Sequence to fold (398 residues):
Amino acid sequence: MVGKRLMSDKEETIRSKNNFLVFGSPLIQEDEINEVVATLRSGWIGTGPKVAKLEDVFRRYKGVRNAVAVNSGTAALHLACLAAEIGPGDEVITTAMTFCASVNAIIHSGATPVLVDCDEKTMNIDPSMIEEKISPKTKAMLIVHFAGRPCEMEPLMDIAKKHGLIVIEDCAHAIETEYHGKQAGLFGLLGCFSFYATKNMTTGEGGMIITESDDLAARVKVLALHGMSHDAWKRFGDEGYKHYQVVECGFKYNMMDIQASLGIHQLKRIEDNWKRRNQIWDRYNEAFRELPVAIPMEPEPGTRHAYHLYTILVDATMAKIHRDAFLDALTAQHIGVGVHYLSIPEHPYYQKRYGWRPENYPQAMRIGRQTVSLPFSAKLTDDDVEDVIKVVRKLLKG
Fold:
């Protein structure tokens, strides 16, 4: 702690232990529950017609030719790299401020990740620093729309065109994100989405890959189900048994109908949930604007922020409290928090394998050591939001 008294354990907490505010708790309603029950009763709980329906409604929502459902956003990223024929000997540029899955997908494809620092305000990859990292081995850029804010796609796509690079978009935070009228996931060769429990729409675990290429979509489908021939799941349907062939050494990355049953109804409410998170974003901004922390910058003109995370930066010198002490104090008040993220070079595995050091990516290092993600979900009630505000204000005002 830096010169500020934390709340005593003996002080009355705003929320009871039994009323812990879970970080990122999803809004699940009766439509999802009923659909899951109907799926269980149908006897078809693996990959089947519900997955096909979710793919179709997601494809239409994004206005794209193909959508392929998988069992996680990480699987989506890995398959996107493989479908784009990224492999050993290739380098892929990505951001130092992201979840490990973005980097691991590159590694699992056999390629080498190359990190670029993030912009100090947007927290997205800094386009001005990319070209100095491009080498003859560079094949692609895997760009991440952090927290739901779109990357600067115009300069990024100019760089890709200039150097003949493939672009894969990590849209785990960015289902509703738009940049100058175009939806995230439609700029690159492939766009990858996550439906993890904390995401803007959830299937518990799950993900989606979108692409305009029929050939890429077909290959992703094959790779996602053991390398079996296209739509092999239909062999158990009522159209007569269909033999399949294994045409590639694939993976067990397919989504289940149980998961898709959640997603079908989650997607129906995506806009209503976005509006609710926008309200919470505005209320947080109003409440925290005068506090000694950095709040998120407003969405840039001509863009649409998905409002996936609400992050504040806690600088110990300015706030008079260390970030980790702040996290502990919020948790002690039964308010769940997150850290998105420690920068990639902070982690021992990458330091050992690639020799990366946090200080070589100073913006990502600073953000990763100061960032706090506050509860931010369409499930939050007005009282929940005010409880968060009360604790944050008390901690930072002393």
User: Anything to note?
Assistant: The chain has 13 helices and twelve strands. The mean pLDDT is 95. The chain has two domains: 17-26+270-397, 30-268. Residues 270-288 form the longest helix (19 residues).
